[in-house]
Amino acid sequence: MPELFTTLIWLSVTVVTFWAMDRMVQRVGRPPLLHPVLLSTPVIIAALMASRTSYETYSSATGMITFLLGPTVVSMAVPIWANRRTIRRLALPISLALLAGALTAIITSVGIVWLFGAPQEILASVAPRATTTPVGMAISQTLGGIPALTAVIVIFAGVFGAMLATPVLNLIRVHDWRARGFAVGVSAHGAGAARAFEVSPTAGAYAGVGMALNAVLTATLLSILSLLL
To answer: What is the pTM of this model?
Structure first.
């Protein structure tokens, strides 16, 4: 019973906090630089600190939310299927953009922390930062990284990517919803795809494509790299 009570409490706190922040962001017109996940995080951290609840307890209590990430990702196949003919025609530019995005994410992430003298386990933890959380954690564990650290990095990379995508793409004058969506999906995975669906169904569909393909390609590239090293 105590475990069930703890689960209900922290599930409720998480869901209500996110709902409240999402409503607040919605009321101000959903500006790109405000994201409900980013706003919810300090509130939940404060609640954990005030109640002296460990991260392990919170993670175990909210495991259902993590589990639901899988069906959520799968549901993105619906708009992808609806746009399948256009996606098939754009196979070559999509492939080239995917390769460029995956390599850039890996090289910049690992390269920056390597320049600061980070140990091997930290390098392995940041390498999959542009994939989805479950995939990134699995890759991190395989490479000898710290899955929990990878989860935090992946989530914040997605949130900040979703926040900055609109102003950056507007600045460089990318107006094609397909290109915008794909770029956000590759660089900001689930959070980026969710943001893309908010502004355009087409952008959301291509964000889903970018997110899924980048997870597969990044896992493949890092697996090959680990064998070579």
So the answer is: 0.76
